[in-house]
Design a protein that fits this description.
The chain is α/β, with parallel strands linked by helices. The protein contains five helices and 20 strands. Strands 1, 2, 3, 4, 7, 9, 11 and 20 form an eight-stranded mixed sheet that branches. It has a six-stranded mixed sheet with strand order 12-13-16-17-19-18, with helices on one face. A two-stranded antiparallel sheet has the order 5-6. The longest helix is centred in the first third of the chain and has 14 residues.
């Protein structure tokens, strides 16, 4: 699978609140971009791809209560579909590349917490949702996580490859670091899982911590080296790129969706 074209202008923007310095909040904008996906199977018209939705939509916008940005995003995307600006959700899959939590008031930088409601909101509205855990994502207790993974349409990946509507999707969650800390794996465990997934040659590889790209496209060198021979599309987040798409002369395309939404549609 490849990105054939990607617009630079957003078709929609969502205003939200996130954390600034010193416990303050700042107003930010989540852009929704559209592009073309080469290689989508016939049962799918589009993929919604996003990550790092670390903010809240305030109560005066969303029905009297602060909600996680990801929950509000579902409603906004459905409205765009109803207006004909995006394909039907029944024929759209969702890819989540991690870090979907914000403190309830949106005023704590680097907050970690439960993101199950974002996953279940997408699963209820779309054909299916697949993706990985970010380093700030939590899923409740072990039993809570098992219940989420058993939910129809939910595919939380960590070293696995699944075929959904003819599209093979692999993923490795969390980031490399001190494995004693939540949301992290040892370098050796992360890279071993990555190699196992790449060896299965999925159409789409979903990571939270991704490879580096060109200048000003920060990422991890070890991840890039282990994906150099990969022939599918790599999706990641964790660090923000001004230019979301890396298209090297050799190696895979990398689509960074940190703090943005990219909807890839069938070219026709």
């Amino acid at each position: 699978m490849r990105v054939g074209a990607l617009t630079s202008e957003a078709i929609h923007r969502i205003r939200y609140t996130n954390a600034g310095r010193g416990g303050r909040t700042v107003s930010s904008v989540l852009p929704v971009l559209v592009g073309e996906a080469e290689g989508l199977p016939s049962d799918l018209d589009a993929l919604v791809i996003t990550s790092d939705l670390q903010g809240v939509v305030p109560s005066w916008i969303h029905d009297g209560a602060n909600v996680l940005l990801g929950v509000h995003l579902v409603d906004q995307l459905l409205e765009l579909s109803e207006r004909g600006a995006l394909p039907y959700p029944e024929r759209t899959g969702v890819i989540l590349a991690g870090d979907l939590y914000s403190a309830p008031a949106g005023n704590v930088r680097g907050a970690s917490g439960d993101v199950r409601e974002v996953w279940t909101a997408f699963a209820a509205a779309y054909r299916w949702v697949a993706g990985v855990q970010g380093n700030h994502d939590r899923f409740g207790s072990k039993r809570d996580r098992e219940r989420l993974e058993a939910t129809e349409g939910v595919h939380l990946l960590d070293g696995e490859v699944e075929a959904l509507d003819g599209l093979s999707i692999g993923g490795v969650g969390e980031i490399m670091g001190n494995a004693k800390k939540p949301g992290r794996k040892s370098v050796s465990e992360f890279l071993t899982l990555l190699e196992l997934v790449v060896d299965e040659a999925p159409d789409l590889l979903v990571l939270h911590q991704g490879p580096d790209g060109a200048k000003r496209q920060s990422g991890d060198l070890d991840v890039r080296e282990r994906t150099d021979g990969f022939e599918g599309l790599v999706v990641c987040g964790h660090v923000h790129w001004e230019d979301p798409l890396h298209e090297p002369a050799e190696g895979p395309q990398v689509l960074n969706v940190d703090s943005r939404v990219v909807v890839l549609q069938r070219p026709d």
